[in-house]
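This section describes the prediction task in plain terms. A model, or a person checking by hand, is given the sequence of a single protein chain and must write out its three-dimensional structure as a string of tokens. No templates, partner chains or ligands are provided. The sample shown here is typical of the held-out split.
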Amino acid sequence: MQSMTGFASRTSQARVGDIPVELEWELRSVNGRGLDLRLRLPDTLGFMEPALRAQLGERIARGNLSLALKLRHAGAAPLGQVDRTALEAALDALNIVAEQAQAQGVALQPPSALDLLGWRAIMPMTQDFAALDRNALSGAVLAGFASLVDDFVAMRAREGQSLAALIGAQLDEVVRLTAAARAILPDRAEAMAEHLRKALEHLRDPVQLDPARLEQEVALIAVKGDVTEELDRLKAHCAAARDLLGTDGPVGRKLDFLMQEFNREANTLCSKAQHIALTRIGLDLKTVIDQMREQVQNLE
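The expected answer:
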């Protein structure tokens, strides 16, 4: 069982041919009705998107996932900063050119500092990976990605265990409230009967009632006010939810549907209560069920 909320990041280094590269990964997810994958890859790695999507689809069933990957030459100066090694090489090259030009009587205008900063090698804003071998680069990417997904799934599993424990405690509360509702049914029945007797006594003076019809109406009131079926269904729903919590694999959709059934029974219980204590229990049930549904909606 996994939560749909998760995060993992990883930085790995590899050699692609003779070139050391660094891969910086970040994978995060939030709740979603289905599986929505958004990948942000360097242009050089656009060809990897189908393979990465396929691997995520094998491990993840639901959630809005965002994957970001940065690729850079290991040990290179950060983008937007001066590469001192490249600057020294450029200045040495300028000296050689200036000396050769002077020897041949050619006057050259020396470059300004701003001219030098405009050279891509001295202050790189992007890195060129066109020379990298695609097969070797693909292997490095997949190796780092597999470890990233392992970390990501492990975190979602830990979150899922915490959610399952919390939902289990909420199910315990539903069971307790259901038992409390069942325990007050005798007092409720007596109170309803007393209320009905008083109502009938009030009607008997001015109105002659047909005993057979009166018996039918009393039976109908008793049927409409019976909440035994709702309490039985709540008990059955609790058992079904516990079975799902003990199941391997994604169960979030099934539990979410079951929460609707929980809520329906609690609503019916409140509407048929006609007893202040039972109404209070029904409202407590609705509160716990609503809290439980919030947690269920985080499950994959």
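For orientation: The mean pLDDT is 83.
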